[in-house]
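Exercise: predict the fold of this chain.
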Amino acid sequence: MPRGVKGSGKSKTTSTVKKSIKSTQVIAETAVSENQKKTYPTRAERIVLADAQIERLTKLNSSRAALVEKTEKQLAERKSALEKSTAALDKVLSRKERLSSTPETVKATKKAQKQQIDELMAALKANGKSLEDVLSELKNSDQ
């Protein structure tokens, strides 16, 4: 038979007729069984069904608890790995910043810091206090 044409071109054989007869018999049997009332399970049968359901749910809950524990462990491992990689990134960024800063800017920042220290020392001398006096006052104020 050429492609695209429906049907096999053969006439119905006895086997297909037998199959259709069997299918109608099965449908008739199910129709009869549907008309009959379903018996309600006894108390003992309901207890057995409840026990089976309890067992099934217990297994399900234990497997889920194990899965949650496993994923929490993986999460903790991933968090620690993230912290380590973040620390490594910060370290590399600071190294790059130090390398990229030119010597002129380093000298300028050191000069500015030295100027601030000189101004602080001049203010201390003007007030008549020594550096040790200021440090002891700061320690006492912290306590």
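Check your answer against the key: Residues 39-100 form one domain.
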